[in-house]
Design a protein that fits this description.
The structure holds two protein chains of two kinds. By secondary structure, chain A is mostly helical. Chain A is built from four helices and two strands. Chain B is mainly alpha-helical. The relative contact order of chain B is 0.25.
Chain lengths: ~160, ~70
């Protein structure tokens, strides 16, 4: 991972806030929380899903939808990305090595978790696995990286 | 890979912090290099060589199995 792919240190705090808001928001979605002011017309592709029994299929359409889930998903993805790609104050080549190791570790663990989920979780529950998977890679990456940096500082 | 960075740094009376500042890395990186936990890039090895006034092969040497 080269330094040119990293972004300014100041985005780290913004990323952390967005990520935490996203995670908290995700927990609210389980109680079907959908604030009315987020009911808006959205452009929708493939606006039908046989699993949920919708009949009015359309390749592209404009329909009213609550966008709370979408915002939360964007918060998790964008927050996670800003969090893991923002430079540390003392960014140097060893920090880049730790990042690279952390992203590889996170990718491996994420793959193992997904395979276990594919084998043992079925039906609608698997949908929730996919929802969690939006942010789990970033969370694993960030946690592993923070652990590696703190271990380095302790030494 | 074994290295003599710590020995030469101490001989020159330079602290880890000073050396880190001179080659624009963190003090933790210097510690990791000295303890053999991190092998620096060619660029960093050349910077160390310049600051410590020694050839790169005086600072770093291959071991059996490398």
């Amino acid at each position: 991972m080269e330094t040119k792919f990293l972004i300014s240190h100041k985005f780290r705090t913004i990323g952390a806030i967005l990520f935490i808001l996203g995670v908290l928001g995700t927990s609210l979605t389980f109680s079907d929380y959908e604030p009315e002011f987020l009911d808006v017309d959205v452009i929708m592709f493939f606006a039908d899903d046989e699993v949920f029994g919708q009949e009015d299929f359309s390749v592209i359409d404009i329909r009213e939808e609550n966008i709370f889930n979408e915002l939360i998903g964007i918060f998790v993805i964008l927050g996670g990305l800003l969090l893991v790609l923002s430079k540390r104050k003392n960014e140097d080549e060893m920090m880049i090595k730790l990042r690279l190791e952390s992203v590889l570790w996170a990718a491996k663990i994420n793959a193992v978790l997904l395979i276990i989920s594919l084998l043992f979780i079925y039906g609608l529950s698997f949908y929730f696995v996919m929802v969690f998977n939006l942010g789990i890679l970033y969370a694993l990456f960030a946690l592993r990286f923070e652990w590696a940096v703190s271990r380095l500082k302790r030494e | 890979m074994k290295n003599r960075v710590k020995i030469i740094r101490v001989e020159k009376g330079i602290t880890q912090g000073d050396l880190a500042e001179k080659i624009s890395v963190s003090r933790q990186t210097i510690h990791a290099i000295e303890s053999g936990k991190y092998i620096p890039s060619t660029l960093l090895a050349l910077k160390l060589s310049k600051v410590l006034g020694k050839d790169v092969d005086e600072l770093f040497a291959l071991e059996k199995g490398d």
